[in-house]
């Protein structure tokens, strides 16, 4: 499996996506600064506490990379079906499901790591910037930082599962637009809170969302060994 994953990464030059991830992080940081200065010009405070700041950061990062994952799914799976190059791949004496699982592992790992690392990077930059510009009136405490790390991890787990769901819609008609549009709809539905509480911050909810995403993704190719590739 590791060999398959390594070959897929080299085949699609996926490491080049890291540059796009960095650009996205810079844009997100710029957006946070814009929100701060826009609210400040109106005499209000954008981030009353670090809890609010971390929640705002997560609410931008997760949707960004869920959609990013849909683009990745389109590139390494849906496009191969559209161009019929998947036929050559399936001619190797390896289970088709094994190929698909390898591709999904790449998407899942990419999504989790980019969300987690981006939260750490932007959170750190936000803290450093705050030490000069004083974005947040309240100081960052160890308890808040600990809760933020836990929430960040749970959010990354849940988002990773959600990021796999667009594969189901994309595989139905082998459509790139369907894959990306479904991820946008999914982000719109999931990126919300109930009574100002983000559902991703709950361990059980995060795990259930991740499992649901994996299960739905599996159903998109469960019969792949029996179906002809046209």
Explained architecture:
There is one protein chain. The chain has helices spanning about 1-10, 15-40, 50-80, 85-90, 95-135, 140-165, 165-175, 175-190, 205-220; strands spanning about 195, 195-200. The relative contact order is 0.14. The protein has one domain (about 1-220). By secondary structure, it is an all-alpha fold. A hairpin with a 2-residue loop joins strand 1 and strand 2 (about 195-200). The protein contains nine helices and two strands. Helix content is about 75%, strand content about 0%. The radius of gyration is 19 Å and the shape is elongated. It has a two-stranded antiparallel ribbon with strand order 1-2.
Roughly how much helix do the residues carry, as a percent range?
Answer: over 70%
Q: Which outline best applies?
A: elongated
Strand order of the largest sheet: 1-2
N-to-C CA distance: 26 Å
Q: From N to C, what is the helix and strand string?
A: HHHHHHHHEEH
Give the mean pLDDT.
86
Low-confidence stretches: none
For the record, the count of structural domains works out to: 1
Instruction: Give the C-alpha Rg.
Output: 19 Å
Oligomer classification? single chain
Q: What is the number of strand segments? A: 2
Reported for the largest beta sheet, the result is: 2 strands, antiparallel
């Amino acid at each position: 499996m590791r060999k398959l994953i390594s070959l897929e990464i080299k085949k699609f030059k996926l490491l080049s996506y890291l540059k796009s991830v960095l650009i996205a992080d810079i844009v997100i940081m710029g957006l946070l600064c814009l929100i701060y200065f826009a609210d400040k010009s109106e005499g209000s405070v954008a981030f009353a506490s670090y809890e609010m700041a971390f929640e705002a950061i997560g609410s931008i990062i997760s949707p960004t990379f869920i959609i990013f994952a849909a683009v990745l799914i389109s590139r390494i799976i849906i496009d191969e079906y559209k161009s019929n190059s998947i036929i050559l791949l399936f001619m190797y004496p390896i289970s088709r499901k094994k190929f698909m699982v390898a591709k999904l592992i790449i998407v899942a790992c990419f999504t989790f790591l980019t969300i987690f690392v981006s939260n750490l990077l932007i959170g750190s930059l936000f803290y450093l910037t705050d030490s000069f510009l004083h974005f947040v009136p309240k100081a960052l405490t160890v308890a808040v930082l600990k809760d933020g790390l836990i929430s960040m991890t749970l959010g990354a787990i849940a988002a990773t599962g959600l990021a796999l769901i667009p594969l189901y819609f994309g595989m139905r008609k082998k459509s790139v637009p369907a894959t990306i549009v479904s991820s946008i709809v999914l982000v719109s539905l999931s990126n919300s809170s109930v009574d100002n509480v983000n559902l991703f911050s709950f361990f059980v909810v995060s795990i259930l969302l991740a499992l649901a995403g994996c299960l739905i993704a599996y159903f998109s190719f469960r019969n792949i060994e029996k179906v002809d590739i046209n």
